[in-house]
Design brief:
The structure holds 3 protein chains of 3 kinds. Chain A has helices spanning 6-26, 30-54, 64-94. By secondary structure, chain A is mostly helical. In chain A, helix 2 runs antiparallel to helix 3 (64-94). Chain A is elongated. In chain A, 59% of the residues are buried. Chain B is 77% helix and 0% strand. Chain B has helices at 2-24, 28-48, 52-77, 83-86, 93-110, 124-134, 136-157. The chains are: A mainly alpha, B mainly alpha, C mainly alpha.
Chain lengths: 107, 162, 669
């Protein structure tokens, strides 16, 4: 295959990251927060895969990109699961899933 | 070549749009739809760069499991996105911050040399061999993270908990 | 020639050791010693041992005239490295020197010390805090003995300071009384001024000696009083006469502080706030004598220039007159005796300055006995009638026979009436100054002052005797009924009376007199002038006459219960007030302290409180504020934490991709 510009992929992942961060900072609904986090993580995973594809010629390390991506996908899924457990617990406790109501996390 | 470029552009736009849409629409169930589409478009990217295994993985885990999880979450809590939940009233600061991050990264990205012109592909067996031999430790760690997460999640949602 | 008692000389260090042991024992166990009069008998025991040993050593020295025995122990040594100020190293020593000077002082200090200890047992019987008293008194005795026996300048200074500290403690014994506490402070501070001057003088000597030459050996050996073959006098004279004179003046300053000479005499009258026994020991016989002893010691081993000697004569002569004048009008029995001490010290200083060191020491010897006697007798009176005001007393000779006779003997001795001790020594002082004035005409005014003081001395002391003991009954009817004092008080008084009578004549015993005429290992200094020319006899007759005139005046004004009071518009009134107010010197010092020093202290306090503390507290408040502000970051709102993460990420990215490339040193650009 011929090249698609690497920089393009990277720019895209930067944009997705930006969207994800925007979502983290501005959304108060817990589930939307989780979705924003997912968007950000996926942008990182995209980066890994793309680098793995483009720089896979390095002997011995060619498969590092996809490997990390696999692990990260698993990790992100776990995190969503735990996050949802928290959502359910919070919902039971407070009756809402407004993140702004979770204010007790301090020393 | 031009096909790939086109595919790339379509997928890129889709990804960006669906991501934004997921975050900005008013109905929680609608976001789930947008989220699913977002994951699918990412999978498309993986197929584009000759990583079919990862593409399938993405579809299976994300577009499948994670989306359903989120759907369950929405269903159980039965909430809607209230107006006061939509924005945090921080003004333009979050947008500015995200734009800053995007710009910095993009600029940095543009300086990276596009190493080779070949997109490398690999077989699944090669990937699995590498994954379990060379990067086996990472998998073990992942398992170590998942187990307590599982236990914790179960603990958090069990009945009788005030 | 050495007698059998010479074997004791190496054990001289036991003399100060005995009271030190008393101090330690009383200090540790005093509070359990109720039977032993709270440590009183232990202290008296220690003083007794010291007295026996001290007198034996002194007698031994008498029997081997002119010898000196130096036993010292190097406690600090620096090896020399061939270069620098001390190429052969440097050492400091502690030791004892038994020579005629220290022998005389030994007798004085140990005998009076023991008698005062004994007296205290009765006198202080009703007081509280006695273990402290006896412990401090023992420590004082030990320090004074250490000073007397010191064989080098450093040790001398060490004990000099220690003696000053003990004096502070003892004057301030009744520390709950503000007057006593402040008197103790005053004593310490004023003598401190003297000490600083003394130290400055020592530094000059050291600096002069330590610059090569044979004097270097002296300095390197730890400043011993016994020269190691170095002709100090010539040495220091030759090198720098001006510096030498200045050093001498500074040493005089130190002696003036301890011996309460003008202008450092303000503390001694106020020191009467302490117990009378303390005054008897410290401010009559011993500590104040240390100043004279200092002058004596330095005169024999370093010497004084002509200017220094004039200064010494001037200060001694002036102080004599100055203090006696103030004693004439005072109404506190102890204060009169205190002024008398200052005045008599002036005589001693005068004699030393005139070049007759041993004459001064002779007067020190006799004075110790009759002054202690006067103090103790006064103490007995105070103990019985519970007041110190002369105008409340009267007629006590009927009820306190022994005490009144003791005081009479002391007074006669002080006034210089033959054949009591004071006559011989005071006469010798006057004779010496007269002789010295022949060659130093500048001494004449001071000789005249000294002569006039003879009259004043007799007057003031007999004023006291008449006011206290003569007449029929006390002037103040509310006075407690008088009775004779207990044996612990009358015995010392009796002993001291005997000494006050014979001590002067003792000098005619050859061995004893030999102490005063022999040199101390150096070229012999002039001793007691043994001549009896017509001039001398005329002088003696003159001074006795003046003394008798003083007594007569006192009898006329105060005898038989009369009270002489100056009429209100008499021209002598302002003089009287001047004397009562101590020539306004004290007032002047107080004004200076209050206005100048106190203002300065307040300024410094301001600096300390606002600037220094302000800075410290400022830092404290800075950090407090900072932490309060920072604490708000931990809001507990999850979104805030998310925001922190993002902000952190942004900062990191900016740093990595924007700032780092821009720094040329880090490979950017």
């Amino acid at each position: 295959m011929t090249d698609l510009p690497l920089a393009g992929f990277l720019a895209l992942s930067a944009v997705l990251l930006g969207i994800g961060i925007f979502g983290i900072l501005t959304r108060r609904n817990f589930i939307l927060l989780l979705i924003a986090i997912e968007v950000a993580i996926n942008s990182a995973i995209l980066n890994f895969v793309v680098f793995g594809a483009y720089w896979g010629g390095v002997p011995g390390y060619g498969l590092e990109g996809p490997s990390v991506a696999v692990v990260l996908i698993g990790l992100a899924a776990t995190e969503v699961a735990v996050g949802l457990a928290i959502v359910l617990a919070l919902n039971r406790l407070r009756g809402s899933i407004n993140v702004a109501e979770a204010t007790v996390l301090k020393l | 070549m031009i096909l790939e470029l086109l595919a790339f552009l379509v997928l890129a736009v889709t990804a960006a749009v669906t991501a934004l849409a997921a975050l900005l629409v008013r109905e929680l169930v609608h976001t789930i739809v947008w989220v699913a589409l977002f994951f699918v478009s990412l999978a498309g990217f993986y197929f584009l760069v000759s990583a079919p295994f990862l593409g399938v993985l993405q579809l299976g885990v994300y577009a499948g499991a994670v989306t359903i999880l989120l759907l369950f979450g929405v269903m159980v809590t039965r909430k809607r996105i209230f107006a006061h939940e939509a924005a945090t009233g921080l003004g333009p600061a979050p947008v500015a911050l995200s734009l800053l991050i995007v710009v910095v990264l993009a600029t940095a990205a543009s300086t990276i040399p596009a190493a080779t012109s070949q997109i490398h592909s690999y077989s699944v067996s090669a990937l699995s061999t590498a994954l379990f031999n060379q990067y086996g430790a990472w998998l073990l760690l992942l398992g170590l993270v998942m187990l307590p997460a599982l236990a914790g999640a179960i603990y958090l949602v069990r009945e009788g908990r005030e | 020639m050495s007698g059998p008692l010479n074997a004791l000389f190496p054990w001289a260090f036991l003399v100060p050791l005995a009271p030190t042991l008393s101090f330690v024992v009383i200090g540790l166990f005093g509070r359990r010693m109720q039977r032993l009069e709270w440590g009183g008998w232990v202290a008296a025991g220690g003083a007794f041992v010291a007295m026996v040993l001290g007198v034996l050593i002194a007698v031994g020295e008498m029997l081997s005239p002119g010898t000196y025995t130096d036993r010292s122990f190097q406690w600090f040594t620096l090896a020399g490295n061939g270069t620098g100020t001390f190429p052969n190293g440097f050492s400091l020593v502690m030791g004892t020197l038994v020579d005629p000077l220290s022998a005389v002082m030994l007798i004085v200090v140990t005998v009076v010390g023991f008698l005062v200890m004994l007296f205290s047992i009765g006198y202080m019987h009703r007081d509280s805090g006695l273990p402290r008293y006896y412990a401090q008194l023992s420590l004082f005795l030990a320090s004074m003995l250490g000073l007397v026996l010191a064989d080098n300048l450093l040790q001398f200074f060490l004990f000099w300071e220690l003696v000053g500290v003990c004096s502070y403690f003892l004057i301030g014994f009744y520390y709950q009384r503000p007057a006593a506490a402040s008197a103790a402070k005053e004593a310490f501070l004023v003598t401190r001024i003297g000490d600083v001057l003394f130290l400055a003088g020592v530094f000059i000597y050291f600096q002069q000696f330590a610059t090569a030459g044979p004097g270097l050996g002296w300095a390197a050996a730890g400043f011993p009083f016994v020269d190691h073959g170095a002709p100090f006098l010539a040495l220091i004279h030759a090198s720098n006469p001006t510096l030498f004179t200045i050093a001498g003046l500074l040493v005089l300053g130190g002696a003036a502080g301890k011996s309460a000479q003008f202008p450092l005499d303000v503390w001694l009258p106020d020191a009467m706030e302490g117990p009378t026994t303390v005054s008897a020991l410290i401010h009559a016989a011993t500590m104040v004598a240390a100043g004279v002893y200092l002058l004596a010691v330095t005169s024999v081993f370093i010497g004084f220039s002509a200017t220094d000697q004039l200064a010494i004569v001037a200060i001694g002569g002036f102080t004599t007159f100055w203090a006696a004048s103030m004693a004439m009008v005072n109404r506190d029995i102890k204060r009169v005796i205190a002024y008398s001490t200052v005045s008599q010290l002036g005589y001693m200083v005068l004699a030393v300055g005139a070049g007759f060191t041993m004459v001064g020491l002779y007067h020190l010897f006799t004075h110790a006995f009759f002054k202690a006697l006067l103090f103790l007798a006064a103490g007995a009176v105070i103990h019985v009638v519970e007041t110190q005001d002369l105008f409340k007393m009267g007629g006590l000779r009927k009820t306190m026979r022994i005490t009144s006779i003791g005081f009479l003997i002391g007074g006669l001795s002080l006034a210089g009436i033959p054949p009591l001790a004071g006559f011989f020594s005071k006469d010798d002082v006057l004779g010496s100054v007269y002789v010295a004035a022949q060659t130093h005409p500048l001494y004449w005014p001071f000789f005249l002052l000294a002569l006039l003081t003879v009259f004043m001395t007799a007057y003031y002391i007999f004023r006291v005797w008449f006011l206290t003991f003569s007449g029929d009954r006390p002037r103040d009817p509310a006075l407690p009924a008088a009775h004779e004092a207990p044996w612990t008080m009358t015995v010392p008084v009796t002993v001291l009376s005997a000494l006050a009578i014979v001590a002067g004549a003792l000098v005619f015993v050859p061995q004893f007199g030999g102490l005063f005429t022999a040199g101390v290992g150096f070229p012999a200094t002039p001793g007691v002038p043994p001549t009896y020319t017509t001039t001398d006899l005329l002088l003696s007759a003159g001074s006795v006459g003046l003394g008798l005139a003083g007594i007569l005046t006192a009898y006329v004004l105060w005898g038989n219960g009369r009270v002489f009071s100056l009429s209100a518009n008499s021209p002598a009134q302002p003089i009287r007030r001047l004397l009562l107010e101590r020539y306004y010197v004290k007032a002047g010092v107080d004004w200076f302290g209050l206005r100048v020093v106190y203002t300065f202290s307040r300024f410094l306090d301001f600096v300390d409180e606002y600037i220094i503390d302000g800075t410290v507290h400022g830092f404290e408040r800075l950090f407090s504020e900072l932490s309060i502000r920072m604490r708000r970051l931990q809001s507990g709102v999850v979104l805030d934490y998310a925001a922190y993460v993002v902000v952190g990420l942004a900062v990191f990215l900016v740093f990595l991709y924007v700032i780092v490339p821009a720094i040329p040193a880090l490979g950017g650009g």
